[in-house]
Amino acid sequence: MPAHILLVEDDPLIVESLSELLAREGYAVDAVDSQDRAIRAAIEPASPQAAVQLVLLDITLAQGNGLAVCGAIKQARPELPVIFLTASDDEFTTVTGLTMGADDYIAKPFRPRELLARIAAALRRTQPARHIVHLGPIAIDTDRARVERDGTEVVLSAMEYRLLLLFATNPDKLITREAIRDALWNDAGTYIEENTLTVYINRLRNKIESDPTSPRLIQTVRGLGYKAQG
Question: At 126, is the pLDDT very low, low, confident or very high (cuts 50, 70, 90)?
Answer without folding.
Answer: confident
